[in-house]
Design a protein that fits this description.
The chain is an all-alpha fold and 112 residues long. The chain has helices at 8-28, 33-56, 58-62, 70-73. Helix 1 (8-28) runs antiparallel to helix 2 (33-56). It is flat. 1% of the residues are buried.
């Protein structure tokens, strides 16, 4: 079985778009705080997009270092628990008694 390969074109497109946007911002926006904020936002957005690409292709990236015989050498062991209920059930608590009678207050009510 052939494992999927990472889509390298997507990563290169994201990096190219980030660099192109940085060059465009450098040429069109005057020097100042706005340009610095724009460039920082473009860089952070570009790295976030590349991180997202890495996350989407993590299985294919992991399989890059595997040899063709890896599938025959991987062993998966499944151990059933055999329990039908939790090991430590919670004890049932009795409800707290609540008084329905009003409590007399030693303080006098003062009307304005």
């Amino acid at each position: 079985m052939t494992s999927p390969r990472p889509g390298w074109a997507g990563l290169y497109a994201r990096a190219g778009l980030m660099l192109g946007a940085l060059l465009l911002a450098q040429g069109l926006v005057t020097v100042g705080a706005e340009r610095t904020l724009l460039e920082c936002g473009l860089v952070l957005g570009g790295f976030a997009a590349m991180g997202q690409w890495t996350r989407r292709n993590r299985a294919a990236l992991d399989r890059l270092d595997w040899c063709d015989c890896a599938s025959s050498q991987v062993t998966v062991r499944v151990i059933p628990s055999g329990r039908e209920h939790p090991a430590h059930p919670r004890p049932e608590r009795a409800p707290r008694p609540r008084s329905a009678e009003p409590v007399e207050s030693p303080f006098e009510e003062v009307a304005p």
